[in-house]
Amino acid sequence: MVECSDLREIERCFGQFNLFDILKVTNNELRHSNVLAWLLDPNGSHGLNALFLRKWLIRVTHDSFSGKAHEIDPVEIDSAFFSSVKVSREWHNIDLLLEIDVHDEKWIVAIENKVWSTQHSSQLARYREILDRYFPKTRQLLILLSVSGEEPEDDAYVIARYDHIAGELKACVKEMEGAIGDGPRLMINHYVEIIETRFMPDSRVEQLARKIYHAHRRALDVIFEHRPDITEILSEKLSELVGKDGAKVGLIFRNYAKGRIWFRPNSWILSPHTDPIVCCEINFYFPDKLVLKAVAGPGDQTWRENLFKLSKVKSFRNITQKATLPKQWYQFYAVQMPNFSTREVSLENADESVLKIWEWCLHQVRSGEFENVKNEVATLLTIYPPLPSKEPAALDDPIT
Question: Residue 147: helix, strand or coil by DSSP?
Fold first, then answer.
C-alpha cells in the first residue's frame, strides 16, 4: 500500500479543505436539504437570484416532460416571471416545499430528498395527498431527488439526481461570475465538489476505490471485517450511562442490543421478577434516525387493547400511528431526536455523542408530556392481571 499511487490520490480527494467535510455534514440529509433551500430561494445570500431555481427546474422538467396539460412545461419555466418564491423546510414532513407565484397562478414544487436513505411507508403518496388537500386545483411538480436517480414508488413524482444539481450550479456560477461574493462562491464550489467526488455515478473517487480494491482485495476484506462498528460502540457506551445514571432519576436499565437500549421508569415495574409489560427504548438502529419510544410487549390482550385505546384518547405523541393493535410489540409513544445521524459519529467524538443522546433523552422523559404518559400507563398497570414470578428472560426485539 506504501507504493499505491491510487491510494494517495483518493486520500488527496478527501484531504482537501472542504467546509462540508469539516462540519461533518457530507452525508447528512437534513443539511443537504438546508443547503438546497438556500440555493433555491431567489432571495438567498448566494447572489444567484432565481437563476439556479430556474435552470434546475428546467433541467428536471425537460428530462421528464410527457406533454400532459397539467404538467409544468420547461418552456413555461424559462419564460415565467417569478413574482415571489416561498421556500419551506419540513412542511408536513415534506423535505422542501416551494410556493412560486407566476403571473396569475401559483406553482407548487415539492422535493423529497434522499441522500443515502430510501423511500418508505408510502410516504410519497401521503405527501401528494396532503398537497392535494392544501393546494387543490394548483399545478404541482413533485420531485424525488436522490444520488442514484431512484425510481419513485408514486407515478406522480419525477426523478432528479444530484449530478443535475452540480451541473446547473457550475453553469450558474460561471454565468454570474461578477455578481457572486467570495463567501458564497466558496460555499457553492465546495458543495459542487462534494457532489462530484462522493455522489455522482462513476466519480473519480469510485473509480479509484474499485481499482484499489481489485489490487488489494484480500487485505481490504480483512480490514473491513475488523473495522469498528460505531453503532455497536454507541450502544455499549450508552447502555453503561443509562445503567449508571438512570437509577438516579428513577429509570431502571433493562437490556441493550446493537442500536437499541431498553429501560423502564420505576412506576412501570410490577415486580422485579417479571418480564417487562411496557418499557422505553432508545432506538438508533437505522443510521439517520434516533427515536425515544415507549413500547408494550406481548401479554394480556384485554389490557393491551385498553392501552391502545388510552393512547388514542389521550393523544400520546407518536411518530408512527397504527390504525389497529399489532399482535406483538406496540409503540404507543415516540419522539424523534432532530439532526441526528450515526454517520457523523466517529471514534473520536463517540463519548460526546453519547452524552448528547442521553441529555436529550433525559429532557424528554422529564417533560410534562412524557410525565403524563408515564402516569397514565402506571395507573393502567395497577389493573394488570397477576403475573407468575420468574427470572427475567432476555428481552425480545421490539423494534419497528
Answer: coil
Beta strands 82-91 and 260-265 are unpaired
**By three-state DSSP, how is residue 113 classified?**
strand
- Cα Dmax for the chain: 78
291 strand-pairing partners: 283, 336
C-alpha of 210 from chain center: 28
* Cα–Cα distance, 297 to 305 (Å, whole number): 12
What does the buried/exposed string (b/e) look like for 126-140 if buried means 16 or more CB atoms within 10 Å of the residue's CB? ebbeebeeebeeebb
DSSP count for the chain of H helices, then E strands? 14, 10
Q: How does pLDDT run across 152-211, given as a tens digit for each residue?
A: 989 899 999 998 999 999 999 999 988 889 999 999 999 998 888 877 666 677 788 888
Predicted model pTM = 0.58
| 282 phi, psi to nearest 5 deg | -100, 115
Cβ within 8 Å of residue 95, ≥6 positions away: 29, 33, 89, 111, 112, 113
Write the CB contacts of 249 (distance below 8 Å, at least 6 apart in sequence).
Answer: 362, 365, 366
